[in-house]
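Recall the central idea of this unit: under ordinary conditions, the amino acid sequence of a chain determines the structure it adopts. In this exercise we apply that idea directly, starting from the sequence alone.
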Amino acid sequence: MQIGNATQSALQGLQNSQRQLNEQANTIARGVERDRSPGDETSEALVKVKSASNTAQANTRVLKAADEMLGNLLDIQA
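Accordingly, the structure predicted from this sequence is:
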């Protein structure tokens, strides 16, 4: 995989994670406003929040690795 492709994939993954986090935050807020107690929908949303968080962390690691690889390549060229 090329560095540019890895970076692009990681950025798309971060955007997807952010979208998922926003959707689930809205789901949780609606559930709390409606029920005043957590229900199945809220519990499922919390699991999805954790999953999106883990995905975002993984994509961040990919970005860091791509950055390090690019830095090493620039060092070699210098």
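The chain has a mean pLDDT of 88.
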